[in-house]
Amino acid sequence: MTFDLPHPDFRAQLAAEPVIAVVRASSIPDAAALCAALAGGGITCTELTFSTPDVVPHLRAAVAAGHRIGAGTVLTAAQAREAIDAGVSFLVTPGLRPEVAEVAHEAGVPIVLGALTPTEVAQALDLGTAAVKIFPAKAFGPGYFKDLRGPYPGLPLVASGGVNAGNAADFLANGALAVCAGTDVVPPDIVAAGDWPEITRRARAFVTALRRPA
User: Fold this and answer.
1) pLDDT level of residue 157 (50, 70, 90 thresholds)
2) What Gene Ontology terms describe what this protein does at the molecular function level (predicted)?
C-alpha cells in the first residue's frame, strides 16, 4: 500500500536527517545562535513552538539566518498564518487541527499533524498531512510504531514526546521516519541561558546515539 501524500521533498529531507529539535523555553536569547549550535552537533532541523513566548520574532530571526525552521504547537489558523508569514518551512500540530491544515495547504507549506490512535492517523491522512506525528510516543513505546505499520505500511511517522538519546534509535528501528528531540537536547534552562556549547554537545550525543544498533 502506498499513500499519496503531499510534499515528498519534505519527507526525503526527514529521511536523510531524521531528527527535529523541538524547542520549548521561557525565553530564547538568540534563535539564530541556537539553531547554529544545534547544527554544529548535527541537527539541522528545528521546530520553535508557540508555547514559547513571542515566538514569531524568533522564527523570523532563525529563518533570516538561513536555518531550516518549522513552527510547532500550532493550534489556530491565525498562528499558522503568522508562522508562514515568518517564512517557516513546515508546521506541526499536537493533534488534529483542520483549520491549520487548510491554511498550510493554501500556502503550499508541509504540515505534520499530531495523532495517536489508528482512527486519528486516518483522519490526519484525510486532512492531507505530509507525515503523522505520533504523540506521546514514549507512553506507548517503539513497538507501537511497528503495530501502526501493520494497517499503515510505509506511512511516514514522526515520534514525539519523551524521545531521548537512549530510545531514539529504537523508534527508528520500529518504523518511525524521524524523531523529535526535546528536553534531552534543548532543556529550557540551558536554552534560556544561551549555553550554546552545551546545546551542541547534547545534539552531537543524540545524533551519535541514532547510529547504534537498536
Assistant:
1) very high
2) lyase activity
Query: Which residues, in sequence order, are CB contacts of 158 under 8 Å at separation 6+?
Result: 14, 20, 112, 131, 132, 133, 134, 176, 177, 178, 179, 180
How far apart are alpha carbons 173 and 194 in whole angstroms? 33
pTM for the predicted model, two decimal places: 0.96
pLDDT at 1 (0 to 100) = 66
Examine the residue annotation and report whether 138 is marked as an active-site residue of this protein.
no
Are the CB atoms for 100 and 80 separated by under 8 Å?
Answer: yes
How do residues 19-61 score in pLDDT, each as one tens digit? 999 999 999 999 999 999 999 999 999 999 999 999 999 999 9
Question: Catalytic: which of 17, 47, 138, 146?
Answer: 47
Three-state secondary-structure class, residue 144: helix
Q: Is 146 a catalytic residue?
A: no
Task: Kindly report the length of the chain.
Answer: 214
DSSP assigned state of 95? S
Nearest in space to 111 (alpha carbons), one of 135, 131, 95: 131
Could you give the angle at the alpha carbon of 112 between the alpha carbons of 72 and 166, nearest 5°? 75
The C-alpha cell that represents 156 in the structure block: 511516514
Choosing from 133, 138, 146, 198, the catalytic residue is 133
State pLDDT tens for residues 79-97.
999 999 999 999 999 999 9
Fold of 17-210: TIM Barrel (3.20.20)
The pair phi, psi for residue 199, each rounded to 5°, is -60, -45
Give the number of other CB atoms < 10 A from CB of residue 87. 13
Radius of gyration of the chain (CA): 16
